[in-house]
Model the fold of this input.
Amino acid sequence: MRKTALKWAAVVATGSVLLTGCGMFGQEKASETIDPPVKVSEGSKDAAQTKTKENAQADKKTEMVKRELYLMDKNGYVVPQTVELPAAQGNAYMKQALEYLVKDGPVSNLLPNGFQAVLPANTVVKGVDIKDGTAVADFSDDFKKYKKEEERKIVESITWTLTQFKGVKQVKLRINGQDVAKMPVNNTPVNGLSRADGINFDDEQVADVMNTKPVTLYFVAQNNKQVYYVPVTRRIAADTDDKVKAVIQELVKGPSHRSTLVSEFNSDARLISDPKFENGKVTLNFNENIYGSVGKNIISDHVLNSLVLSLTEQRGIEGVAIQVNGKSDLLTEKGEKLTKPVSRPQNVNTGSF
Done:
């Protein structure tokens, strides 16, 4: 019996999860519009060239790119949602991403149903500089206008949105050009933020924080007919030797009973041998309890995706291969053979709302 059963199995077939041979969540590229060639006479050559330049400029202005914005859902979780934004010029893409986190800002018409932005309304993003892997975001005074209980969500949203970009390892903040070591309302330290600081902390109390370390797990949430993945940080014993094993144990344990999140892991799922690492890939050998209830040799999409998203948060892991009793004969819910490692998607939660 699963510890936490999903009651909306019919949604799975039409949800946002799209598994391919080595990836998930529909990693398609943004579509491009190309004008057909224009036949012109010699006399209208200049006019045609002008028109071609105008078309090229118009195409450039409408080019869209996919970005992950860390927004807040109706249950208060900070969640990645992939949206299409106009392609920013030069290095302005990080500044643009933060601008789309501002309440009542340009994100208003793009917000998925049940989600909201987290940065205080009227906040101006003055710029984002990056040097030696650190992105420094500068905000206006309106950044200070938030409630105490919103502070942690603001910090998480900024950090996880910026660290999606290649080369950004940590984040620092400024207000009106002045470095900020603590947040202005509840004094949360912000002098060097990273994903290691966590997100959506598990609400179960930890008695001895000093002797623990964080791991980030991905569980499933539902909003009407849409399902999506929520990162949750949980603390494990600091002396844990194998973080991969620890992550799997916590995923099998499932989300907190007090949360609104769910899991499809069978509570009897276990690794029957140690994980094997090779060239950025980890191979996991499970017992038969990793299978879903939808058929023999079939692994649930949600189980597979939670494993891949959670494990690729670990440094050095880029792909996950799964075996059962030493054999790689699993099938996805679509009936596809799972013979190759599954990589982390370029964008998470890409479903349309």
